[in-house]
Specification:
Elements: H1 8-14, H2 19-33, E1 45-47, E2 55-57, H3 59-67, H4 71-81, H5 84-87, E3 90-95, E4 99-104, H6 106-115, H7 119-126, E5 134-138, H8 153-168, E6 172-176, H9 185-199, H10 201-210, H11 212-229, H12 231-245, H13 249-273, H14 290-299, E7 304-306, E8 309-312, E9 330-333, H15 341-356, E10 360-366, H16 370-386, E11 393-399, E12 402-403, H17 420-438, H18 444-464, E13 472-473, H19 476-480, H20 487-503, H21 511-514, H22 523-532, H23 535-545, H24 549-568, H25 576-600
Parallel strand pairs: 5-6, 5-10, 10-11, 12-13
Antiparallel strand pairs: 1-2, 2-4, 3-4, 7-8, 8-9
Helix pairs in contact: 2-4, 3-4, 9-10, 9-11, 9-12, 10-11, 11-12, 12-13, 14-15, 15-16, 17-18, 20-24, 20-25, 22-24, 22-25, 23-24, 24-25
The chain binds one RNA strand of 77 nucleotides through helix 3, helix 16, strand 13, helix 20 and helix 23.
RNA sequence: GCAGUUGUAGCUCAAUUGGAUAGAGCAUCUGACUACGAAUCAGAAGGUUAGGGGUUCGAUUCCCUUCAACUGCACCA
């Protein structure tokens, strides 16, 4: 890199990371110069279709409409007033009714490549977006005493990806596993446990020693079916529940045991998915924090008594109004005085506010619970307003159902839920067959690791690469497939890049190589560089929508652009300057691909 | 019954929230390994965006309507 008159340091400081944001700024400055009414003008810069350049700004059209001007004239006035910093980044053209098309100058691409050579450089450039904010991400949240099944996949995978993406953008993230560890079911489990202890102690202890969670899950089913059939057992279960809730040491010990083995079993799956929670504050944690909520809700007039229960109506919303045809209030305390889902969720919001000082709380939960969250958020809004607290941004990241190929929720042939453990194992087995077939030369132990990374990564990626709010059809063939928008395709591109650096005995980002790079020249080189600099846009879009499929799509396109480049332009050429500039492109591609895949929660491979 | 969501190529999905000629992959068809990994690449074909109407410079996107599927509706989470 040649030093500019201002010196290399200031050049680095001023290197543009997010071109769309810089163009946005430039256009706003131009609008001021041109005398636009800034209240009506939003540049609306976005990534453009390739035939229109790198970015397009549509804002002059909307502005002209509102200000009753000719859109093309407005566009011309903007272009004439663009500051020199903007013109140093891109070439501008006016097209059609008044679109502004920007094509980045090769020099701007070169500067970007030079300025962001490492993951920490990307991270610090990205971290301005959410710096200083605290975001709680509430995800996974299985029930104890039950194994995780396929229905728990999406929350875990999407939640982890969102947590990583938001953290990369500079937020302090609190990952909270809001486990279901409290409720009426524990009376039945404890009854069944004690029953098994009395009738066949040896079998119980053996089962608890080998597969504890499976055994508690079995006991729950036993308790459930027995209590359904026998009123005396139902009554006995209720009594066990009351003892548990009033702090009976024996029942508390059993309940703790259930929680411990459950969390330990969950962690094995989380390890595969790259998940580590900061907090595991389940429903039981909020048990003693609920009464204060009732008091405040009543005192502030937000809640009222109805049919013996404590409820909140939202009369301004026809769906939750007391005047609705079939009123559907938010029940925050049941008529029998017990807490429910709503009670603990309200206590949880307060805790996240006071304890973590959360600016945002994201709930990664099945979209079928949309009504619940809508009522919860409306209620919290009124409650916090009445008590003078600042409400965090509350958002339900709803997701669709995983369907089988018959279009019904995915189940085993017997109609049971597929255990998440089994699903990930099957994915690993399928990947293993492929690895054995294609890479028989790799040692056995490494093939096992590769199979796990490809198999589990395929499941994660298949989930993340679709818009989270729609249902999706689970198809093994498509998921483990090596082609198309799949984990294997991306991991293969990464493995090839590692392989290249191994073969050439080169190190990605080696300054001695990079300083020898000549300017980008071929169409494939320029296309790859253009795609690389869009990393910031992919991040921005993913954060704005909290939908990881935008990041997936970008990485897939980047891998495709790279593969095309790699076929068209040979890297290991004689000319040292050409070789150096292509190696630099390869190093950045590897960096962005791996950084992006890690943000999604996937592990990457040096060979496969 | 009321409400919500969804409907895009044969199949599985996108479309930056109103932007330009609606894009990918799979499957199909043509090509490219004496080649830095062919788990790859280049190309072709595939569409009345469920149907109809409206709003405007512009609609898959907003409004109305019909049809279809799914989901939620007082003490489960």
């Amino acid at each position: 890199m040649r030093a500019s008159p201002a010196g290399p340091l200031s050049q680095r400081m001023s290197a543009c990371f997010h071109f769309a944001a810089a163009l946005d700024q430039g256009l706003k400055a131009a609008a001021t110069t041109a005398g636009f009414d800034l209240a009506l003008f939003d540049p609306d810069v976005r990534v453009a279709a390739a035939q229109h350049g790198d970015f397009q700004a549509n804002g002059s059209l909307a502005y002209a409409k509102q200000a009753k001007q000719n859109p093309r004239a407005a566009a011309q006035a903007l272009v004439a007033a663009l500051p020199s910093e903007t013109l140093a980044l891109a070439k501008v053209e006016i097209a059609g009714p008044g679109f502004l098309n920007f094509t980045l100058l090769p020099s701007a691409l070169e500067t970007w490549l030079a300025a962001f050579p490492t993951e920490s450089a990307l991270r610090s450039a990205s971290s301005a977006t959410l710096a200083g904010q605290t975001w709680v991400v509430d995800y996974s949240s299985p029930n104890t005493a039950k194994q995780m099944h396929v229905g728990h996949l999406r929350s875990a995978v999407i939640g982890e990806a969102v947590a990583r993406i938001v953290a990369f953008a500079g937020a302090r993230v609190v990952r909270d596993n809001h486990i279901g560890d409290w409720g009426t079911s524990f009376g039945k489990i404890i009854w069944a446990y004690k029953h098994a202890l009395a009738t066949d102690r040896a079998a119980l202890e053996a089962a608890l020693a080998s597969t504890p969670l499976e055994e508690f899950e079995r006991l729950y089913k036993v308790g459930n079916t027995t209590a359904d059939a026998d009123p005396a057992v139902l009554e006995a279960s209720r009594a066990e529940l009351v003892k548990l809730q009033s702090g009976d040491p024996e029942n508390i010990a059993i309940w703790r045991h259930i929680g411990e083995v459950s969390v330990a079993a969950f962690q094995k799956i989380y390890d595969l998915l790259g998940i580590r929670f900061d907090e595991t504050l389940g429903e039981s944690f909020y048990n003693d924090k609920v009464p204060a909520v009732y008091t405040e809700m009543l005192a502030s007039g937000v809640a009222e008594e109805s049919q013996g229960a404590l409820v909140v109506f939202h009369d301004e919303n026809p769906r939750y109004s007391r005047h609705a045809e079939r009123p559907n209030p938010f029940i925050i305390r049941k008529a029998d005085g017990a807490a429910n889902y709503a009670s603990t969720d309200l206590a949880t919001i307060l805790y996240r506010h006071t304890q973590f000082n959360a600016d945002a709380a994201l709930y990664v939960v099945d979209k079928r619970q949309g009504d619940h969250f809508e009522q919860l958020f409306l209620t919290a809004q009124k409650w916090f307003a009445a008590t003078g607290r600042k409400l965090p941004r509350l958002e339900h990241l709803g997701f669709g159902t995983v369907l089988g190929e018959d279009g019904r929720p995915l189940k085993t042939r017997n109609g049971e839920n597929i255990k998440l453990k089994d699903l990930l194992q099957e994915a690993t087995d399928r990947a293993r067959r492929l690895v054995d077939e294609r890479s028989a030369d790799i040692p056995e132990a490494e093939r096992a690791t590769i199979a796990e990374i490809v198999g589990v990564g395929s499941v994660q990626y298949a989930d993340l690469s679709q818009n989270r709010s729609s249902d999706y059809t689970f198809a093994w063939e498509k998921m483990i497939s090596l082609e198309g928008n799949t984990a294997a395709y991306l991991l293969y591109a990464v493995a090839r890049l590692h392989s290249l650096f191994r073969k050439l005995d080169a190190r990605p980002g080696d300054p001695a190589v990079e300083s020898a790079a000549s300017p980008l020249e071929t169409a494939a080189e320029l296309a790859l560089a253009r795609k690389l600099v869009q990393f910031a846009d992919a991040q921005q879009q993913t954060i704005a929508t909290l939908r990881p499929h935008f990041l997936c799509l970008y990485l897939y396109e980047l891998a495709g652009t790279f593969s095309a480049f790699y076929t068209a332009d040979k890297v290991a050429v004689e000319d040292p300057a050409i070789r150096a500039r292509r190696l630099r492109l390869c190093a950045r591609t590897l960096l962005v691909l791996e950084t992006g895949l890690h943000l999604l929660g996937l592990r990457t491979l040096a060979r496969m």
